[in-house]
Amino acid sequence: MADITLSAQPREITGRKVRQLRNLGLIPVVVYGKTQVAKNLQVQERLLDRALHSGGASRLVKVDVEGGDRYNVLIRSVHRHPVSHRLLHADFYAVNMTEKQRVNISVIPVGKPATLVTGLMIFQNMDSVEVEALPADIPSAIEIDVTELSLDKSITIADLPVISGVTYVSEPQEHVFTMIQTREEEISEVETVEDVEVVAKGKKDEDEA
Q: How far from 35 is each of 38, 62, 95, 209, CA to CA, in Å?
């Protein structure tokens, strides 16, 4: 798994003036940490976007700052414009490489259940799961085999693959994937039951008459 690296420059512009940076394609960011004094940086929007799409939303990112500074960070939060969704700001958390971190990792289904037929569908109960790991061991995503999934068998946290150096924090019994009947199928069943009840009631009325 290739490292994610990001180039940055020291930033002097703060407050409302950061709009000037965005007009130049630069995004203001802040690096902070348990023992790290907050520092203002700026990064190119296209490079930050690329890092995020490469898994930077959960994986370790190495930030090289013009002038020689380097930070190992987790991107804690990203702010986007509510309409255009363009990047506006990001917070980088500087980590200690020997200290475990808790992060949410995306889960991706792999395979197709043999029991998947018309009227059934796979329901993903959790888009991500919380894990604990050293920064260098944090995976970009977790692939989950769903071929054994059925109406009678769900996939829980306890069923997730073992990953070296990674501990699942969520409760073992929590469902990650389940198989459910589609809404159309459920409606069809309800209508059938109602029909039976109506027929039974009509027959009873006739008997009473």
A: 9, 17, 9, 87
Domain boundaries, the chain: 4-96, 102-185
Cα angle 165, 138, 144 (rounded to 5 degrees) comes to 85
* Amino acid 102: pLDDT: 93
Q: Angle at Cα 2 formed by Cα 53 and Cα 107, nearest 5°?
A: 50
User: Average pLDDT over the chain, rounded to whole?
Assistant: 86
Q: Where are the beta strands (DSSP E) in 66-197?
A: 70-80, 87-94, 101-110, 120-124, 128-133, 141-145, 155-156, 167-168, 175-181
Residues 14-24 have pLDDT tens digits of 998 999 999 99
Predicted structure pTM score: 0.76
Among candidates 98, 94, 151, 159, which has minimal Cα distance to 129?
Answer: 159
Averaged over 38-60, what is the pLDDT? 91
What is the reported pLDDT for 204? Answer: 45
d(CA 106, CA 201): 52
For residue 194, pLDDT beyond 60: no
Q: What is the CATH code of the structural domain delimited by 4-96?
A: 2.40.240.10
| CATH of region 102-185 | 2.170.120.20
Short-list 69, 60, 5, CA closest to 41: 69
Neighbours of 198 (CB within 10 A): 10
Neighbours of 171 (CB within 10 A): 9
